[in-house]
Input
Amino acid sequence: MRWWVAVAWIEQLIKEGGKAVDEVEVYFVEGTSVSADLKRKKLSLATISQDCGLGIRTIHKGRIGSSSTNDPGRWRECLAASVASGKLATPQEWDGLPGPVPLDMTPLSFDPSMEVEPDSAKKLLQAMLDGATKHTAEVTSGSATLSSMEVTLANSHGVRYSDRNTSVSVSLEAIHGQSTGYEFDQSWTLDRIDPENVGERATFFASESADGKDIPYGEYDVLLSPLAYAELLGNVFVPALSGRNVHAGRSRLATSLSERVADPMISMYDDPLLPGADGSVRWDAEGSPTRRIDFIRDGILCAFAYDLKTASRYGKKSTASAVRGGFGGSPAIGHHNFVVDGKRETVDDDRVVYVHNVVGAHTANPMSGEFSVELSNAFWVENGEFQEPIRSAMLSGNVFDLHHAISGLSPASRAIGSLILPSVKINKQRIIGK
Amino acid sequence: MHGISYYDLRHVTGEITHIEIDNAVVESAGTSLFNKAILRVLVKSGWGILQIDNYTPCSGTKFDELLGRAARLAGITEEHVVLGDAPRGTLAVPQLKENPRDVSIEEKSALLAGIEKSATRPGIVNRRASYIERIEQVRFSDSSGNEYSYEMNRSGFNILAVASRNGNVQMGYEREHSINGFNLRHQQKSGTKAAEIAVALLDATLAKGGKMRAVLDPELAGVFAHEAVGHASEGDLIQEGNSVLSGKTGERIGNETLTIVDDPSIHEFGFDPVDAEGVAVARTEIIRKGVINAFLHSRESLAAVGNGVAGHARAMPGEPPLVRMSNTFIEAGDSTTDEIFAECKNGIFLKGSRGGQVDPGRGIFQFNAEYGYLVENGECTKMVRDVSLSGEILTTLHGIILCGNDRMMSPGYCGKGGQSVPVSDGAPHILLNDAVVGGSGVD
Output
């Protein structure tokens, strides 16, 4: 089923733009979201948000211009701003926007039964609160959000794609004495989230992390939860796979193609067509048909990610990795469903420092990979069981180097934003205790 | 109408101009337009909120419909929000020394290119400069008849220089943002400095972690005040029971020389002429002479918690106001920098900031310096890189044993609840005893 409905003003925009420039691209998003927030255990705030965003790109003789607005009624001004912007840009090699290809237009992450209504959000909060009663901890805040949006991409080569997405996310924060716990869940469909479990886990971590013991300075085998691993991977390693950073000299992996950059058990890939995943999409933010990209296969670096602009400039092909931040933002290199995979096994039999979350991963050095983060909800784990909590300590290391020291991936994976990750066991990491 | 006991409407329109230059290539440059509004309603209840894109000011039946929708939303809430009384009034927005509007984007682009070019140097493999200018027209009105409007103009630039040698990749980063007008002229020194630091870091060693004495420069000490004290003093977190400072008003947390302030009224990057719910802004001394003195509040958290000052509600266009910091700083003391280094004797000197984060409920914070130097016998010696600090809010502040006489403010942005707002942080040089320093170096 095709969702495209001819939107007269978009056709007109492309026609008008075509008079001034070689190529025109229009990206239009409209959506509604509903959220409800808890202050302690009471619903204190309910919001309905109606958002829309228009992003225009115009390309003329290799000069790429862009502008955006959240007021589609002002598309003429926005078009003029884009054309003016192109005049300032340095001209570059440009292979052109893509033309249309026959694609199945059935949305991949859309739940038609999702009711984007305040009552749905209220029910989710209640389910989290029910789950939160299982441990001794106070709920401090929580949130449930449902949203639905429609995306339209059109260009002067005849691309007319549209897509629908839904999303739901829940989160809860809890405290017990001076020990805090946080948990969340997200999906495109209500069937795939478990708000009760979120409530149970947030209060579990707050309650069980209390009365932690100090850990002496030293090297330890560490088990990073998907959440903790996502913080380090997302802030440092993933940006180093962007073709733009690679060619600009901002990636430590720039000269490592075909070299070993991780333990041979590790593979990393972006699979935009992964069934059931949140980021699944058939075309990227510039209309290039998506496909799987294998960045790392058995520890060997095989590929970088490209959008049209970077690919054209450096004589590569787009890997359909363009994504847009927010409503109407310009396309940039990103990913859809970024997976870390490899041989799975039990990783919590031997005594290991389990790290549920970290504080301050965004302060890592994205160039060199060096980081020092404070641990959150860290425990000694042995025989698959949480043992005594660890009070407070820093983990210091290098995100690139630690990938060579990975010694195991847990059987289960979890989606953290657009990253789908197992827990990873890493040998001999430095912990600075108090 | 609709049983509404209070409403307010905040409508923000404006334009954003940006320029990005990457290795002498103008990657993108241009202007975008936005129009966002937020309507908040109380019906002897919690908040019912409508966030509206491209809002057209309306009255009569049309506005009444919006109020009705927000009131129905409020109807599903359970909390009875009470709003504290707070003084009203707006401050004048500072006069722009040079209005960015009067400068063509071509000239802005050429000036930025000059800054970018000044980061050229042997060893530098990448230079990236960006300029951002936000002009916002803000209009506020509420059901009590308060109305105000103003225009804010914020602009500034960042320059990043990346140095690389044999797989060792390092960066230097400088930024300057202002509410006082166009600031791209005569700034080549920023590019030169970013490049010098990036190249110097290629030969720096990794810091070795552990407990030691640390001297923090004004920028990093400002981030320290922001992360270690500012967030935990935000009234909404206190109200939720998610701050270690909850219930601690009047308790000693540091020594006599330590006063930490948040002041949205001063003309630094976090300036607001009035807060996001129409309350007059004023200086709040969070810590006065080492004692916890006052929390930062919105009208709601002031009524729920007390012990502090409203006027600290801030919001991005179209987003709900949250209790936020603005210009946060440690007041200057009377020590000279020489005295601070002499007293440090052996330890580490940390400069610049790569940001930080705090868990206010647990009272744990972390932040990262751009670089530093070992201090040996009161002198800076070897350069070190990738060094962070962490600590516990309730104990670390006692470790501030000297405050310098040279306070400076640095602009930046702070994130909370998915919203990023302009702030500035500052301090004099400070000496910190028993600092927990993180770094992956070994002896």
